[in-house]
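Let's practice the habit of predicting before peeking. Look at the sequence and jot down your guess about where helices and strands might fall. Then scroll down.
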Amino acid sequence: MKSEKIIWESIASLNQWVKDQGYYGWDPYDALNSKIIQKLCFESPYLEILATQMNKYSIINFRPFLRVEKGVDVKGMALFAQAYSKMYTLTNDENYKHDLLNCMLFLKEKSLVSIYGHNCWAGHYYKYRSADKSILSPKIPDVITTSNVIKAAAESYTILKRNDIIEMAKDGYEFLINFLLDKSKDGYTYLKYDTLSNDIIVINASAEGLQAICKLMSLFNNRNMKETAYNLAEFLIKNQNTDGSWIYSKYNNGKVRTQLDFHQGFIIGSLLEYLPFAASSQRDRIISSIQNGSKFYKEKQFLEDGRCHFRYPKLYPIDVHNQAQGIIIFSKLKNFNENYPNFAQKIANWTISNMKDEQGCFYYQKYSFVTNKIPHMRWGQAWMMLALATYLKEQGCVLHD
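Done guessing? Here is the structure:
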C-alpha cells in the first residue's frame, strides 16, 4: 500500500512538472536542433553523427550554451495521451480528460496528411542523423510514432467519443499498409521503420505496428486488419532467437545489429496485445514466444533490485527508458507469472528512489558514481508517465486519502 501511494505521488508531481514546462523539453538526439552545431558540422554526415552522439552521452548539459532549442515531441505527446487515458479511467478526474483532449488535438494538428495523403506522424521536432548515416526529420513519418498516435487515439475514443480522432487513427492504419508494409526475402510480412528504410528491417518496428493494429481491432471488426496482424505476429515469432531474445535489425547486405535493451519489451508487449486476437493455429506459439521472451527479459536484462542493463550484458548506465519499459511489461505479464507485477513495482520503486528529482522529473541515466540529471521530455518524462500509469491501471489501484 505504501508503494502504491508513492507511485501515485510520483505521477502527480511528474505531471505537474511536465505541465509547468508546457511539454517543451530536450531530447537525447537533439544536437542538430542547434544552428551553431549545424554550422560546425558543415553538412558532413560523420560530423553530424559525432555531434549527436557526444550530445547524447555527455553528462554535462551543453544544450543551453550551444542554443539547442527545446521542442514539443510528437511521440512524447502520444505517450502522454496514453498515460492520461489510463489516469482518467482510474480517477474520473476531468483534468486528465482535458489534458488528453489537448494532446490529441496537438497530434491531429501535427499529422503529415497534407504531404502523404494519409494521416501519419514523424517522431521528432528536429533533424536527426543516426549512427548508420540514415536521417530522420519532422517531414519523414515513421512507424513508431504513427503507431503510438494510433494507440493514443484508440484508447482515447472510449473517453472522448470523438469520431474525427478515431477516423484519423483508422487512416493512420492505411498509411502503415500503403507506405510501410513490405515482404522480406524469406517471404514474411513486416513494417519498414520509415518511408526511406528500404535496405534494413527493424524488428521492433513491426511490433509497434502490430500493437497499434490490435488497438484498432478492439474497436473494429476488420478482416484486413486481422490478416495484417496475423502476418506481423508470424514475422515476430519466426525472428525470435532460441534464447528468447530478438535482434534489433538486419540489413539487406547480411549485417545484423544486436541491441538488447527496452526494444525487447516492445516486442513482448505487442505479442501480449495480439494474444486475444491470435488464430487458434497461432495461439500456442504466441504464448510460448511471450514466455521465452519474458524469461530472457527478466533473468538476463534485469537485476533483482529492479535495475535494467543498459544493453545486455553492459550494465551501466542505468537508463530511465529501460526502467520505464520494464515497469510497463511486467505490469502486464500477471497472467504469465503472478510475481511479475511485484517485480514491476520493484523497478518502479528503485527508479523513483534513485532517478527522480525532488521537482518531480526523472533523470536520464545513472552510472555507478555519477548521474546524468538531464530531464529529457520524451525519453524520460513521457515514458515514466506512461509506465507509472500502466502499473496503476494494470493493478487496479485506486487512490486513497
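How did you do? DSSP finds 16 helices and ten strands in the chain.
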